[in-house]
Specification:
Blueprint: E1 5-12, E2 18-25, E3 33-35, H1 36-42, E4 46-53, E5 68-72, E6 75-79, E7 82-86, E8 89-91, E9 98-100
Parallel strand pairs: 2-9, 3-8
Antiparallel strand pairs: 1-2, 1-6, 3-9, 4-5, 5-8, 6-7
Organism: Micrurus spixii (Amazon coral snake)
Protein name: Retropepsins domain-containing protein
InterPro entries: Peptidase_aspartic_dom_sf
Length: about 110
């Protein structure tokens, strides 16, 4: 089974820095996630969560190898003509730049 990837644009609302990404759609994930590399590229502000969150993969391992400790300030996500502002959880070592969870499938 091939992963379902879609082209998106993310914009840092503070700096107006915009980048194109291929986002993985994961209907089994309850949040939207971003790699720490994409956060650096976008120069996105982030803040520490009051309690770290763990994201377990199908094999039981933690996504990124560690619990997620940071969340971004709102970023503008554009998918075609649709857009919305979303705070992404920052995953330290993630293969994909973005994972869009079930929250977008509402």
């Amino acid at each position: 089974v091939l992963p379902f990837l879609i082209p998106v644009i993310l914009e840092n609302l503070q700096t107006k820095n915009r980048e194109r990404y291929m986002a993985l759609i994961d209907t089994g994930c309850t949040k939207c996630l971003i790699s720490s590399q994409a956060v650096v590229k976008l120069q996105a502000s982030q803040y520490k969560l009051s309690k770290p969150m763990k994201f377990e993969q199908v094999d039981g391992s933690l996504l990124g190898g560690h619990p997620v400790e940071y969340v971004t300030d709102p970023l503008k996500l554009e998918i075609g003509c649709h857009w919305e502002e979303i705070c992404f959880l920052v995953v330290p070592k993630m293969r994909e730049d973005l994972i869009l969870g079930i929250i977008l499938a509402r």
